[in-house]
Structures are given as C-alpha cells and as structure tokens.
Design a protein that fits this description.
single chain, about 180 residues, mainly alpha, about 80% helix
C-alpha cells in the first residue's frame, strides 16, 4: 500500500511541475504580449494569448485595456503561485512525518492565496460588468467562484492538517 501511495504522489509531483511550468509560460506570454501591444504594435491586442482578442478594448480606452490586462496578468500570476506552492509541498514532503508545521503553513498559504485570487476574480467580474454596461464586451471568464470554492476546501484541509499535527505531537509526548 505504501509503495502505491508513493507512486501516486510521485506522479502528482510530475504533473504539478508540468502545470507550474505551463503557467509560468502563460504568464510570461501574457506579460510580453501586453507590452508588445502597448508599446510596439497595437494590432498585437487582437491575439494576446491563445486567441484572446482585446483590440476593441484597446481602441476604446487604453486605460481600461491596461486595467483589464493587469487583472488578467495578476490572476495568471496567482495561479502560477498556487502551482508553485504545491510543488514546494512536494519538495519538502516527508513520508515519515507528513503532518508537520511546514506543510501546514504551506497548505494555509494555499488557501489564503486561493481566497485572494477569488476576491480579485470577483473584482474583475464586477469591472467586466461595468465595461459591458458601457458597451464593451470582454471575452473573459474570471473563474472567481471556482477559486472561492477551492479556498474553502483547502481551508478545511488545512484545519484537519493542524489537528493532525496536534495529535501527532500528543502521541510523541506519550511514547
């Protein structure tokens, strides 16, 4: 049973490294495309990243374009940071004592980051609605509710983890 768990965790580690690297590339591509569309060629806003077309927003208002792209880049960066935190958990994971303060702190940090990402996503959704009322439709899905849901689940897991640490500490003291 133990080798199966180690195999699954090793596979998950590899998957999260791939996700982390992919998100780093996506965030970098967004930043470069943003600066190119602002300073080199405004036509670059027609395909910011994987078909994202914000050229009409750039033509309507450069300030709103900068605001929307800042939100897009920030949210992509937060997703990348979440993947980094998971990779960090795998790099510091100890099979002998999985319930330790370092892992608990990282899990709590993941829940707080997911909560912050969800809140920024809500702000971005509200801003999109304001832009829609002024006649500018954005082809974006901000995923705020998903991150708020994730934050709640991870927070519960963090609390269970903290309780596991307490039980492990009590068990070590009684032996």
């Amino acid at each position: 049973m133990e080798t199966k768990t180690k195999l699954i965790l090793t596979i998950m580690n590899v998957i999260f490294w791939i996700v982390f690297i992919g998100l780093c590339i996506k965030t970098g591509a967004l930043v470069i495309s943003f600066f190119v569309s602002l300073f080199v060629n405004p036509e670059g806003a027609k395909d910011i990243y994987l078909g994202l077309d914000l050229h009409s927003l750039l033509k309507a208002s450069q300030n709103q374009y900068v605001s929307v792209m800042s939100l897009v880049i920030f949210l992509s960066g937060m997703k990348t940071y979440l993947a980094y935190l998971v990779v960090k958990i795998f790099s510091q994971f100890d099979y002998a004592t999985p319930f330790n303060a370092t892992n608990a702190a990282l899990i709590s940090k993941i829940s707080h980051t997911a909560l912050g990402t969800g809140i920024v996503g809500l702000v971005a959704e509200s801003y999109s609605k304001v832009l829609l009322k002024s006649g500018i439709a954005l082809p974006l899905h901000w995923e705020s509710s998903e991150f708020l849901f994730l934050a709640g689940i991870i927070f519960i897991i963090a609390q269970v983890f903290k309780r596991g640490i307490e039980l492990q500490t009590e068990n070590e003291l009684t032996v």
